Amino acid sequence: MPHEERDFAAEIAAARRGEAHALDSLFARNLTPLVAFIRARSGAALAARESAVDIAQSVFREVLLDAPNIELRGEPAFRNWLYQQATRKVLDRARFHGRERRAAGREVALPDHGPGADALLACYGAIATPSVHAAAREELARVEAAVGRLPDAQRDAVTMSRLMGLDYAQVAAQLQVTESAVRGLVARGLAALSSELDDRD
Description:
This protein is mostly helical. The protein has two domains: 108 residues; 89 residues, Arc Repressor Mutant, subunit A, CATH 1.10.10. It contains nine helices and no strands.
């Protein structure tokens, strides 16, 4: 087993034992991209009613509990598993809210100015144009809305590759298409985002 895989396996084991340093390290590296991915995947209805951070934390807990039952060959495989679990969780929560009428007072706003908004905008910097730079609620909402308007396949390919950091082979496996198809989806999605965000600047 390569050195990096051994280190990651040890970190996962420590996190499962509840060791704070390992949990903090995993969260610090993966939480914001996962939150951004969940927000992009959720759609407006779910995003307005549930915190993506809460969903992400739930996904982390489930993944760590399942760790003995899955083969995690390094952090890219861990992120891939996070993506799979997050997708299932988002679909489950969307179905729940589709069945239940939720109180408007429970709706969750986008982050205000501050570290949360800064972190999400920095993450979206991987898919937005350089001109998208203001860490403001309106700017974050604009980027997320543009991502949400992409066709499903483009949105998934872009968010998986740019937000979650999956390689094209992993994205292809998830979408059940070829790597060349993924490259095309990502290229078209990024071009559409660039055009829409630049036009509105």
